[in-house]
């Protein structure tokens, strides 16, 4: 029936058919939460809209589509939209406040692909990659050609993933509850993983929070080393911060591994373009290569485009970052790099790279040498 197609769609999913086609009847498929099954390809025809039924999704974890402890699931839908009703869930007269009403929730699953869909207006994330069973990460996940539009908490949240590819994907206009990022890599437990995670040719834009956020204090020294690569990605048009990377600082609390940011462009941020918080020299290496910052920190032209933060709980020096040869296009006459010590005495070291600063038609070059760091940010 037009007013509720849940039973028919859920029955089709559970029929075990290896390839299920969701056709376009010329009106939205109105559904309550749908649970997807293993070993199935679901094809949404061009123009299909699957829409959350109004007045439902009262449970704080009710998602439009869920894949939990499943394997071999493919969703294809270029030109199709899965959408919810963000403003309804934000109304305390209608709903208990929650931030987990996702469009697509994937938990502890493997061999999952999502192609071409638009995921919009959730009460949580466009896509959530979480954990249904402690110690079981998501594995072999592909998200390609997807648009995450106007979601409540994040465009995409990555809690735990091994062998993750996100490619040609747009995450935009997130807003409603923090962090409100385009994408947020944020494990909840030391047993969770960010291993061989690749983002390629992606865009984040106009999110209330950051564009690309890596919040990793819950990964510790005994966690699997991270291995993350961002390549040819863009943050543009009004993200609060383009790129943020935060870890624990003390020896037992600091994840190891590497994150490589290659050929990326960060433009038009409201606040700092790049923020590195609490990351000690001996922790995971942060490496930029051939990146560009353009017109950063429009909300305060006195702010440096890049900041390194020594925050509460820091006992070791901040550093272990290579900015490579980075172009900074900036009309404001201000330092490129700032160090803020909120606790006193931690210091900054092992920060390398070259800034090519382009301002008013001229270019100046700033080498980040040990002597320059010591003079710019003397220890207290």
Describe the structure.
The protein has 380 residues and is mainly beta. 5% of the residues lie in helices and 44% in strands. The protein contains 3 helices and 34 strands. The chain has helices spanning 6-14, 86-89, 370-376; strands at 19-22, 29-31, 34-35, 40-44, 49-52, 65-68, 71-76, 81-83, 104-107, 110-115, 118-120, 125-130, 138-144, 147-149, 154-158, 161-167, 170-172, 181-185, 194-200, 203-205, 212-215, 226-231, 234-236, 243-246, 257-262, 265-267, 274-277, 285-289, 292-294, 306-310, 318-329, 337-341, 348-359, 362-367. The strands form 2 sheets. The chain has a 23-stranded mixed beta sheet that branches. Strands 3-6-9-12-15-18-21-24-27-30-32 form an 11-stranded parallel beta sheet. The protein is elongated, with a radius of gyration of 22 Å. The N and C termini lie far apart (70 Å).
Explain briefly what this protein structure is.
By secondary structure, the protein is mainly β.
What is the count of helical runs? Answer: 3
Quote the beta fraction.
35-45%
Distance between the termini: 70 Å
Structural category: mainly beta
Mean pLDDT: 96
Counting DSSP E segments of at least 2 residues, the number of strands comes to: 34
The residue fraction in helices comes out at under 10%
Rg to the nearest angstrom? 22 Å
Q: Major sheet: size, sense and barrel closure? A: 23 strands, mixed
User: Which shape, going by the Cα principal axes?
Assistant: elongated
Contiguous uncertain segments of 5+ residues:
none
């Amino acid at each position: 029936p037009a007013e509720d197609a849940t039973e028919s769609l859920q029955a089709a999913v559970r029929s075990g058919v290896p390839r299920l086609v969701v056709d376009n009847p010329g009106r939205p498929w109105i559904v309550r939460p749908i649970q997807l099954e293993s070993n199935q390809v679901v094809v949404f025809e061009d123009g299909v809209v699957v829409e959350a039924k109004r007045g439902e999704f009262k449970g704080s974890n009710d998602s439009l589509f869920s894949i939990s402890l499943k394997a071999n699931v493919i969703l294809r839908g270029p030109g199709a939209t899965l959408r919810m009703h963000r403003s309804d869930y934000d109304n305390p007269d209608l709903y208990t406040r929650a931030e987990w009403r996702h469009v697509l929730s994937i938990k502890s699953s493997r061999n999952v692909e999502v192609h071409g869909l638009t995921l919009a207006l959730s009460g949580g994330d466009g896509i959530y990659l979480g954990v249904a069973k402690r110690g079981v990460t998501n594995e072999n996940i592909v998200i390609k050609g997807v648009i995450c539009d106007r979601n409540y908490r994040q465009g995409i949240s990555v809690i735990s993933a091994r062998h993750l590819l996100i490619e040609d994907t747009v995450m935009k206009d997130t807003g409603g509850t923090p962090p409100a990022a385009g994408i947020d890599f944020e494990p909840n437990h030391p047993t969770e993983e960010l291993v061989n995670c690749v983002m390629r040719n992606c865009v984040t834009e106009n999110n209330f929070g950051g564009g690309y956020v890596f919040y990793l204090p819950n990964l510790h020294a005994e966690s699997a080393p991270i291995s993350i690569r961002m390549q040819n990605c863009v943050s543009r048009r009004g993200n609060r911060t383009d790129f943020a990377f935060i870890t624990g600082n003390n020896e037992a609390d600091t994840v190891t591994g590497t994150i490589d940011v290659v050929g990326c462009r960060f433009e038009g941020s409201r606040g700092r373009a790049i923020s590195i918080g609490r990351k000690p020299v001996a922790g995971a290496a942060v490496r930029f290569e051939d990146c560009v910052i353009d017109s950063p920190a429009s909300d305060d032209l006195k702010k440096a485009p890049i900041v390194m933060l020594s925050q509460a709980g820091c006992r070791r020096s901040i550093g272990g970052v290579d900015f490579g040869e980075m172009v900074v296009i900036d009309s404001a006459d201000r330092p490129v790099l700032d160090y803020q010590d909120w606790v006193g005495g931690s210091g900054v070291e092992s920060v390398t790279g070259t800034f090519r600063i382009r301002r008013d038609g001229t270019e100046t070059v700033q080498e980040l040498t040990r002597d320059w760091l010591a003079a710019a940010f003397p220890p207290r």
